[in-house]
Amino acid sequence: MQMTVRSVLDPARDEVLTEVADATPEEVDRAIETAHSAFNGGAWARMPPEERGAVLERCAQVIRDHADDLALIDSKNVGKPIAQANGDAEGAAEFFAVAARHVATLSNEAVDASATQVTLIVREPVGVVAGILPWNYPVAIAAATLAPALAAGNSVVLKPSPETPLSAQRLGSLLAELLPAGVVQVVAGGADVGRQLTRHRLVSRIHFTGSTRAGEEVMTSAARGFKRIGLELGDKSTTMVFADAPLEDAAASAVRRFTANQGENCVAGSRLLVQDSIYDDFIARVVKHAESLVSGNPQHPDTDIGPMITRQHLAKVSDLIDSARRDSSALFEGDLPTDSPYDNGYFAPVAIFESPSTSRIWREEVFGPVLAVASFTDDADAIAQANDTAYGLMAHIWSQDRARAIRVSRGVRSGMIRVNNGVESAAGPWGGFGASGIGRSLGKYGIDANSELKQICLDIS
Ligand code: NAD
Fold it and tell me: What does pLDDT average to over the chain?
């Protein structure tokens, strides 16, 4: 049989980092069967929660110990600015630390404690979880997928994106030293390997992070065999800035958000709504912050903007920018790096457009450093415009008026809302409304999603 070998690239320099072979169908079957045997063997699934928590804490520590290494892998392979890659690796450790804390305190319950019956409610792991990953936050999303699934006692077969398999492979080998044999497997490959995982009879749950389009296919596939699913999909997240906001902080944050990970970010804040009375002032501040951004070498500590992940993705982003040049007003377009070897990289310009709500740039997930801007009149208008999308992962509200911030938060159909400098918690429920996905991951919510509840009814008459 023909083996598929892929070049894994450094997109900032258009260079090959290494080559990785896709797992063959037989290797994928074997990984699932090994994970299933490990699950049935019970060394992990039936380990007392306190002990499992202690192992997960050791997993967190090993990630901290290798954070520089993991961050450098992702910085080179994604083109992610190194300071952000360091944050991702720290976040990966934190997901394990949070899972460790929760698993030790998860309790089983008793209800119905009458004279004749006691009902025990116990948690069971679901079995083998297939974790399918995107390329934008490789090590962080690998850990966000693994930690709650492992905390619940499952075995996991992880499939990283074919563009960015390296940090998940490294993480898999670090964790294999700490976990019972076979509990975590990493298989390389593209959508075909993903499909094989979603169809396999021994996979009980699929945790998929990726595009809304592929998420629909995963959900359809999961229906056969009634597999449990968690879907973490796309977004068109909105930042809303009210006239009473601290404008300078809000402008700096709005720019950080749409350019973090060069906009290849599911919660990118790629739509900016500004109250009409401060519109001109605020946009001038946003443009000033955008002008100071530095594109280029992702491994340089002062770099803000790296390349797009692939030439094909750059073409998609460029197409959306071209559409915006036709139907929107350009407020800012940044420069591309001209110094070798970054002049070969897949860089997109930082761009800001004042956009009508019918434009593609306002409606579609760009996944590049591109911001679409519009104004709003009052709270109701802000909420209506923010909700005018099929997505609903993250929104951001800037206002000094806490009551207004809560009222608007309640009105916006989004799984996560940041208010001013607030940031979502590693222990909170991560996930979205509508086309942004199904279910919530992380913290105890992620452990619940990876567990089955069972009631055992004892007749004590
Ligand atoms: P993608 O959907 O192309 O691929 C994601 C993964 O799914 C890859 O590993 C791919 O090989 C695999 N895959 C593709 N089709 C499949 C199928 N039919 N069955 C099984 N597996 C399949 O997404 P991408 O381009 O890698 O990632 C970008 C997308 O991910 C964006 O839309 C972004 O918003 C989303 N994302 C969401 C979150 C979140 O937390 N909600 C986080 C990061 C990225």
Answer: 97
